[in-house]
Amino acid sequence: xxxxxxxxxxxxxxRIPILKKLSAKGFSVAAVGSEPPEPFARExxxxxxxxxxxxxxxxxxxxxxxxxxxxxxxxxxxxxxxxDTKPAMLVPYAARKAxxxxxxxxxxxxxxxxxxxxPLALLLRPVYRKIQMEASRKSDVTIFQNQDDxxxxxxxxxxxxxxxxxxxxxxxxxxxxxxKAPDSDELNExxxxxxxxxxxxxxxxxxxVKDKGVLNYxxxxxxxxxxxxxxHFLLIGPQSSEGSQAVSLNVIQKYSDCVDWLxxxxxxxxxxxxxxIFVLPxxxxxxxxxxxxxxxxxSMPLITTDMPGCRDVVIDGYDGLLVPPRDSSALxxxxxxxxxxxxxxxxxxxxxKSQVEKGFLLSSVLQSYVDVYSRLI
Length: 377
Prior knowledge:
2 domains; alpha/beta; Rossmann fold
């Protein structure tokens, strides 16, 4: 029985659905991450914890690599598969030191270094490219979630095209996403509690960070409310501790007259099913944003930015609208267009669901991964 380990960071629990499906196919699976173990214990999945600093910290990174080396040497998995920016750069080093047979990494976007034009980000780009080049060389396969990232790596000689694969997104499972769907009475109570009984409901789901476009969403909401007061804006997501990127509660409260911040919620699928428009104005270099796929599964028309990953999901004018990044005015115009046309919302929502079902389901991603693992094993 081949042993497959998934290594991520503080949200590696998002890989639980695919780990369960791999287990059902006969693989022995485990996860390694920096978050608490409870979600894995509930699902009966072996979990190991290590220290990981999301920021730039050579000292912390060396400690993370050493912890991974010790884990890999002790348990000797057949294949280690790293996800997210930092693990995808560190795991190949640790895996080669531990003499792991199969090393796979998924580049889930190019992150803050390529999203920001700050002096620090510009300074770090050559460093990023160097580290990514070495990580690719130490990996058997590098998986990309969108064509833009794959093309960038190949054109800058950061990866051997023969060892790069395109797998669109991390996949969503319709059955899992709709688990424990509320009945009609519960949905009606939720609608009332959210104050959207007679409103056109617009929602954004994201951590409260600037490069996800949270500030643009707040500003666009204020613009839209001036001409369409019947629109009701919801913002769902936790606070962030990411320094200057964090959007403070003081800022959120300044827009409380036009946006309801709900914090973290465990009923996001139900809320999406009650809303009319989904918005993600991210200018972060995403892989493929899972939240766009989840909203699409709920037949919601999508508004997002013309950025790598985001435009892989949304075809402008077909299943949603694309707007320039960092442009609150253009975002407001797109929201007004959909809010003013219920028929267009229905048509685009149906197209969004079809797009997700055709190209982004977990079953497709699972088969692509199994093909990679089988070749390595």
